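Protocol step 4 of 6: structure prediction from sequence.
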Amino acid sequence: GNAVTYLGWVIPWGTPLTLLGDTAEQVQEFQRDLVRIGIDRPEAHATGEPTDWVLDPSDLASTERTDFVGFMAAVAQDPKRVYVDARRRSEWIDGHVEGAMLVPLHEFPARIEEIATLSRAAAHAGTDPRVWISCGSGFRASIAASLLQRAGVPAVHIDDLFANAAKAGANIVVD
C-alpha cells in the first residue's frame, strides 16, 4: 500500500532501516518497493513474530487503540482532549472533527515537540495527557501514534474510518 510513501515522509534520509515481516517474501517485496523511493539496501531484516525480535518480551510495547465511538465517549468525559488529525490538508478542508488540530503525517517529524507541549500542558492542568490521533482509515494515525510514543508522548490510535466520526456523534466542520 502506501507504507513506503509514508516511510519516505517521516524518516530522515539515510536513516538505517531494519525490515521486519512475517515471511522472507514479505520482507523482499517491501525491499523492492523501497527501491522506488531511493532506499536501495536496508541495514538488516528479520522474519517471524515480534517476540522473536527482542531479548526480553517486556521490551515490546503496544499502542492504545479505539474507534470513533470510544473517542466520542472519552470526549463526553473531557471535551478538552488533545486530538490530532493526521490527514492531508485537502482531506481536512472537506470535513474534520470540531476541535481537532491538523498535523498531516508528513509534518509529524517537524512538529512532534509542538504536540508534546500540548500533552505536557494537559498533564500540568490535571487532564488526560494522551494525544488522540485519527486519519482517513487508521493507517497514518498508527504511524503518527508510533512516532509520538517513541518521543515519550502518550498516544491513543483512533483505528477507524474517518467516515465513522459523524456516525459516532462527532461534530464535523467543513472549511
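Step 5 (inspection) to follow. Strands lie at 18-21, 44-47, 64-66, 82-85, 96-97, 101-102, 131-134, 155-158, 172-173.
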